[in-house]
Amino acid sequence: MDYLPGILMSYSAFLLAIATPGPNVLAIMGMSMSNGRKPGMALGLGVAAGSFSWAILTIFGLTALIAAYAPLLTAIKIMGGLYLLWLGYKSLRSAASKTDLTIPKDAKKPHSLFHCARSGYLIMMTNPKAIMAWIAVVSLGMQDGAPWWVGAIIGAGITVLSILIHLIYAIVFSTPIMQRGYAKCRRALQTAMGTFFSLAGIRLLSAP
Fold first, then answer.
1. Which of 49, 92, 103, 206 has the smallest number of Cβ neighbours within 10 A?
2. For residue 49, how many C-alpha atoms fall within 13 Å in the half-sphere facing its CB?
3. Helix, strand or coil for residue 101?
4. Which domain holds residue 120?
5. Number of folded domains in the chain?
6. 87 vs 152, 166, 186, 196, 201, CA distance in Å?
7. Interatomic CA distance for residues 206 and 48, integer angstroms
8. Is the whole model's pTM more than 0.85, yes or no?
9. What tens digit of pLDDT does each residue of 117-171 get?
């Protein structure tokens, strides 16, 4: 129970981060609306596999480093906190913008399901911001002296959430009307996300 608030905070940060349209989400939206539900779901599963890979690399690397050198957790928390503040600024700036959601043009090319899944995986693994996002999310739930199973629970839960949410994106955005619906409430959602990220970043930086 001592680690439950941090674990839930990690889940919440990941849910809000995945709700922000980045390259992975935009690709799923575009593939689903242009080529149908199955290609979009295949791409979403590839993205989720990339999330799982980053989870394994981040969690086990993070816990191993903390076990060997505990003060390193402070540096990791500073990095994660600053990144969350940057996400908050980015979300609030995007909420103030009048630009609507745009879909990448290459998402409209027809692909095999395997190619879609591979593309989704590469999108995640070649994104330099992904590792910073994972450090921020995991460090919210990891405390000094936390056992290995805390990281395992965070990684397993986030992987399941990644699979479910990316599949939901593919299913929902296979109908073009959903893109218009998102555009209408985009500002309110991004304002809420920006506020959460900013508060989470402040919390992480001010934690003892």
1. 206
2. 15
3. coil
4. 4-206
5. 1
6. 25, 20, 16, 10, 9
7. 31
8. no
9. 988 888 777 665 666 677 777 777 776 677 778 878 888 888 898 899 889 988 9
